[in-house]
């Protein structure tokens, strides 16, 4: 019975760390290196008709060229709300509108901007590391509780070692993702 609890605990730990890594990958995907991509607007929600609505559900998003995003709302009254949502998302681009269409001009990346994007990626990596360490801490506390409930000491030590190995594995994955993103950003 207690062995099943250990297996469940290790499984939950992997699952939670996996979710933290998925979130990190999603955040990295929003950091774009120079080219316009509709994915840059993922996660931005607009106050439309009294509800928070994803931006892609209130208009047509397109990339007319490599450095421009165009958002054409289905309802022209939403232009100010979309503009406000983009500014609040802090993606580093100021929207321009002509009353009907919102354009986002993606600036050519300067060396300074590239370094800012790398810094942003490193910040997201650190947030992910913190999440993973929190999951590890919670799992270790649950292991101690299981030990009080009758789990043998050597089994508890093995469980803690397994938790640390899972943590190390996910930390390595974070570093790989960060390294790839850094290379992508710094490539001119």
Short description:
This protein folds into 2 domains: 2-30 and 110-186, Topoisomerase I, Chain A, domain 4 (Orthogonal Bundle), CATH 1.10.132; 38-105, 2-Layer Sandwich (Gyrase A, domain 2), CATH 3.30.1360.40. The protein is 60% helix and 14% strand.
Give the secondary structure arrangement, pairings included.
Blueprint: H1 2-30, E1 45-48, E2 51-54, E3 59-65, E4 68-73, H2 79-89, E5 96-97, E6 102-105, H3 111-148, H4 153-186
Helix pairs in contact: 1-3, 1-4, 3-4
Report on the structure:
With 188 residues, this protein is an alpha+beta fold. It has two domains: 2-30 and 110-186, Ribosome-recycling factor (Topoisomerase I, Chain A, domain 4), CATH 1.10.132; 38-105, Gyrase A, domain 2, CATH 3.30.1360. It contains four helices and six strands, in the order αββββαββαα. The protein has helices spanning 2-30, 79-89, 111-148, 153-186; strands at 45-48, 51-54, 59-65, 68-73, 96-97, 102-105. Strands 3-4-6-5 form a four-stranded antiparallel sheet, covered by helices on one side. It has a two-stranded antiparallel sheet with strand order 1-2. Strand 3 and strand 4 (68-73) form a beta hairpin. The N and C termini lie far apart (57 Å).
